Amino acid sequence: MSTEALAPFRGRQPFAMVSDLVVPGALDLDADDRLWVPQAPDVAFRPLLLSPSQGYFVNLLRVRRSGVLSRHRHAGPVHSFTLRGRWHYLEHDWEATEGGYAFEPPGETHTLVVPDGVAEMITLFHVTGSYVYVDPDGRATGYEDVFTKIENARRHYAEIGLGAERVEEFLR
Ligand SMILES: [Fe+2]
């Protein structure tokens, strides 16, 4: 191969480009429990990327109980990759299983269930926009978005002594 073919890009990266983000061991699901932010009893998330400028976030969601987790409506698209355990939506007959990918369209309302017998579910979710917690008739009861994720992580990291600023490593 010629030296030109092997040469790194010699130009400048564009002004205002944000820096890249690398999370070593992102799939080491049992590492450093301090990074997992409690969200509800037996439910926690570990941020990988939190984007206030683009309004999306990428996180690992870990659930250590079975039953209905939440019913919610998505304003934006969701990409999920199930890493451990399994889960499903009451509104669909498919089941998300380990190693499987699923796309959730903007506008959909669904009810997430972790079935009995699953001790732990961990799924990577890439969530754009907000999702609104709703009752069975669609009435809003609460919401999540990248900003609630950032606030929760800041509070948790401060409480356990990592420092609220620890969240900044995930911001892009
Ligand atoms: Fe969802």
Molecular structure report:
The chain is 10% helix and 41% strand. The two termini are 36 Å apart. The longest helix is centred in the last third of the chain and has 14 residues. The protein is globular and about 60 Å long. It has a domain of 91 residues: Jelly Rolls (Sandwich). The protein contains two helices and twelve strands; from the N terminus they run αββββββββββββα. The strands form two sheets. The chain has a six-stranded antiparallel beta sheet, covered by helices on one side. The chain has a six-stranded antiparallel beta sheet with strand order 7-6-9-4-11-12. The chain has 172 residues and is mostly beta strands. The site of fe (ii) ion has 5 residues, from strand 4. Fe (ii) ion binds next to strand 4.
Mean pLDDT: 97
Low-confidence runs of at least 5 consecutive residues: none
Q: Gyration radius, to the nearest Å?
A: 18 Å
What would the CATH topology of the domain at 55-145 be?
Jelly Rolls
Oligomeric description of these chains: single chain
Terminal Cα span:
36 Å
Pfam families: Cupin_7 (PF12973)
Protein name: 2,4'-dihydroxyacetophenone dioxygenase family protein
Organism: Pseudonocardia alaniniphila
Keywords: Dioxygenase, Oxidoreductase
Summarize the structure in short.
InterPro entries: ChrR-like_cupin_dom, RmlC-like_jellyroll, RmlC_Cupin_sf. The chain has 172 residues and is mainly β.
Could you outline the blueprint of secondary structure elements for this entry?
Elements lengths: L2 H4 L30 E4 L2 E9 L4 E8 L3 E8 L3 E7 L1 E4 L5 E3 L3 E4 L4 E6 L6 E8 L2 E4 L5 E5 L1 H14 L13
Antiparallel strand pairs: 1-2, 2-3, 3-10, 4-9, 4-11, 5-8, 5-10, 6-7, 6-9, 11-12
The structure holds fe (ii) ion (FE2).
